[in-house]
Input
Amino acid sequence: MDTEHPLTGDPGQLEPDLSETALDAYSRTVIAVAEAVGPTVGNLQVRRRTRRGEAVGAGSGVAISGDGLIVTSAHVVEGARHGTATFSDGSEIPLTVVGTDPLSDLAVLRTDDGALTAATLGDATRLRVGQLVIAIGNPQGFASSLTAGVVSGLGRSLPVGARGGPRRVVENVIQTDAALNPGNSGGALVDGHGRVVGINTALAGIGLGLAVPINDATRTIISSLIRHGRVRRAVFGAAVAPRPLPRSIADRIGRQAAVQVMQLVPDGPAERGGLVQGDLLVSLDGEPLGDATDLQRLMTSERIGRRVPAVVVRGGRPRTLELTLDELR
Output
């Protein structure tokens, strides 16, 4: 029997419900990710010393190797050395904090008791706004909870830092509308192929979750934490902001942008090297600079104690200075 089409009003056989088909495909993807990645995410319980004695902290962690390595957020294990991880199969495994890096809000834990199901790490640089992502963690202690959403933004900045200590900024974090709650920190942000592309780190507001991306830089940090228990970084000693170069200078040196020195740390590397407030910093150690992220990326351990050239524009004229970078403490 022919039926009038609900959209066009034309008589004829009804078309298949495409929205139902799309929802089925979406559901199958989320279910497959949950089954593959859920067993790799543990519920962490850690004990930390406080001024009032001992306190219990909770969060999530992602197993990254079958022989006992787990990645979580640095703030989850801040002040702790030991704890336990409970996984979806009911296993409860003691763990030790190998190293933490507050600047990236990443930490590595190790357990020597039992094999782990390891997650597959992806590459957050391939993410696109609007892409499906799934957050897996243990919010409010509910083990292996899953929420789904999309990538809402890329390249965000996240202030982090020790309690009562200086605040720093994690650059290029992932913003998602997948629901995050206390206890999700340290859990996995996963793409539709079941690859961990981020470590959930913060709830910034309703529908606003943030995750530290998995990319070459964070892989290097994780490797350093495994080998040395810490990450050595250089420090420049100035706050900067992106600025366009004057056309006359841009045409002469072939660069359109720089970073302006906004504030100098007293007796820091930048001040000792002769930089002054207002300088336009074009490059450091031969690497061009367009924003604060470019500068932060150059603060690697290999540059600690080295004299590096800095090209600046001052008074409309470029000049080259040399400065020696300190180690970040």
User: Anything to note?
Assistant: The domain at 234-327 is CATH 2.30.42.10 (Pdz3 Domain). Residues 3-9, 162-166 have pLDDT under 50 and may be disordered. The two ends are 78 Å apart (CA to CA).
